[in-house]
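[#protein-structures] MJ: dropping Equilibrative nucleoside transporter 2 here for a structure pass
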Amino acid sequence: MSRKNDPQDKFHAVTIICLILGLGTLLPWNFFITAIPYFQQRLCSETHKLSGNHSENSELSDSSNNGTTKCRDDFNFNNWMTLLAQLPLLLCTLLNSFIYRWIPEKVRIAGSMLAILSLFIFTAILVKVEMDAQSFFDLTMATIWFINAFCAILQGSLFGLLTLFPQHYSSMFLSGQGMAGTFAALAMLLSMSSGADPRTTALGYFITPCVGTFISITCYFLLYHVDFANYHFSKSNTNSSKTYELETKTELLHQGEENGDAGQKKAVLLLKEAEAGSVGEEKQSVSLWTVLKKIWVMALTIVITFGVTLSVFPAITAKVVSRYDHEGWCKFFNPVCCFLIFNIMDWIGRSITSKILWPGPDCKYLPLLTASRFIFVPLFMLCNIPERTYLSTFFLNDVWFIIFMIFFSLSNGYFVSLPMCLAPKKVLPHESETTGALMTFFLALGLSVGAGLSFGFKALL
Ligand SMILES: Nc1nc2c(ncn2[C@@H]2O[C@H](CO)[C@@H](O)[C@H]2O)c(=O)[nH]1
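AK: finished. structure tokens for Equilibrative nucleoside transporter 2:
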């Protein structure tokens, strides 16, 4: 709650920094998934070269074969990439919840960003290095593993840091995460339409996230020079003092006033709980179990949402091709209809939560509501995927894929952001940092569950 004498967020500097930091955390994942055609073509052409059958075909997309590779996907690239990106995210999010006590936040955040920058530079250099397909696959997978591991530490640490600011700033961070994919898709489209040779195009594409990560590092250090941010950091350092207690209690009462009768009852209960918890303690201890009991509906919602999304995106959706033979449309079909649409609608979905938070924090049916998104799994599996064994194509027309993608991504963005915004509303102020950490863990769990499921759905195709 802001008071008259609190410093203001001048020129929305902290808002913009949160947006850019959010963008920075998801650049690795988005730049790698959007470049799936480049990796697949490269694995394909390196295999051809080894068998003496090389043709200099386009690597960011191959228009001569309807935008997809004619080589069989022996490496199962999409699925491995999804899994090896999300598994370290889960493991390192867990790791971060232990190491945050011993490694200072500045070291974790700046260190991870520098490591991400170095790995992006390495990926850009790799574009120009010739090697056999197996070595290229191994090196790419190792890069994906490490870049996402650092990304997890970065994300966990930033979510923790943002809980010290009002909720609006967490929404901005989530919006920034949503923007990262759009940024990657636009970078891909720009480099593809530059007309340069395929290797130079890929190089230009991978240099973009290097610049993006560099800007994020600069923004992070700038945060410590903004009065508004420093005020909130210092407030958290004195949160065991009387000032904090008073402020907390006043805030609870205001919550009660704003929410009417039921809100007041809740505020009184919360007040009692806060008082009981603070007696004789320097810093209030927080029980994971107590917090989990309060936020389990939100946690389950985020696991289901990401579980469904990652089970088909991008492993299956990146395989859908246009039914038409028009060269230009085929080349741009997947980057536009899969990645650009997903990311724009995902971002819109996330941003809606800054205006509407429906259904509210007390709705128990939120997990069921988001589980209904499972319908998108068979719908995408029945779209125009040339490489399939068991199923046949039912939704041949490109329009079907576009319609499914719009609703799939809009609902993903909304049901990701909604529980992340509602969870802190269900706990006491001193429990919000633990809530942030727990929700980040469940977010990563959902992503890993989805990545695991994608192998099953791919096998069913
Ligand atoms: N918050 C968050 N979302 C992610 C991460 N990796 C993938 N996603 C989301 O997964 C979906 C598919 O890319 C998008 O909504 C992404 O924002 C991550 O590390 N953190």
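MJ: nice. The two ends are 52 Å apart (CA to CA).
AK: one more thing. The CA atoms of residues 227 and 362 lie 36 Å apart.
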